[in-house]
Amino acid sequence: MARSSATSASWTSASGKRSKRRSVLAVWTWSSEIVDQYVTEVRPLLAVAGNPALWPSERSARVGLQRLNSRFGAYRNELGLDEGLDFHSLRRSYVTHLIEDGWDPRFVQEQVGHEHASTTSIYTCVSSDFRVRTLRRALDQTMNAALGMKGANAR
């Protein structure tokens, strides 16, 4: 697993639900360096008195979801990527990569702020290679146990 760091934030959802503290694991070693550089070098240039938002907007307190979606869509189209790819795909990808990299499912659930594991499972779209490796490991462990090879290493 990669070295990690985390950043967290809390907010109130559009549905008016209670604010949740959420973290984002920086799974790549360079992630925290990039965010730190943005916070120290770029964010001060965007300073608006009393605005604590990490990603402020010139028209409101923070960049809104609609703006993020429109920019993401423009970049996606310019790059010729599938129109099914949306901004929320990044969240699903994040969950999937954490699971495939071996992070504990409960930890992943907490990272994305889901109350129920079943919600997190909806976000997880593991590859067929991952499914085969997981099944192979389970079958090897079962066979080793059945053959009395408890000390043998499973793949």
Mean pLDDT over all positions: 78
CA-CA gap between termini: 17 Å
Radius of gyration: 20 Å
Q: Tell me the series of helices and strands, N- to C-terminal.
A: EEHHHHHH
| Tally of separate helices | 6
Strand order of the largest sheet: 1-2
Tell the overall outline: elongated
Strand-residue fraction?
5-15%
What is the helix fraction of residues, given as a range? 40-55%
Look at the helices and sheets and give the structural class. Answer: mainly alpha
Low-confidence stretches: 1-13
Write a brief structural summary.
This protein has 155 residues and is mainly alpha-helical. The protein is 47% helix and 9% strand. The protein has helices at residues 31-42, 65-78, 87-100, 105-111, 117-123, 128-146; strands at 5-11, 20-26.
What's the arrangement of secondary structure elements?
Blueprint: E1 5-11, E2 20-26, H1 31-42, H2 65-78, H3 87-100, H4 105-111, H5 117-123, H6 128-146
Antiparallel strand pairs: 1-2
Task: Write a structural description.
By secondary structure, the protein is mostly helical. It has helices at 31-42, 65-78, 87-100, 105-111, 117-123, 128-146; strands spanning 5-11, 20-26. It has a two-stranded antiparallel sheet. β1 and β2 form a beta hairpin. The longest helix is centred in the C-terminal third of the chain and has 19 residues, at 128-146. The two termini are 17 Å apart. Residues 1-13 have low confidence and may be disordered.
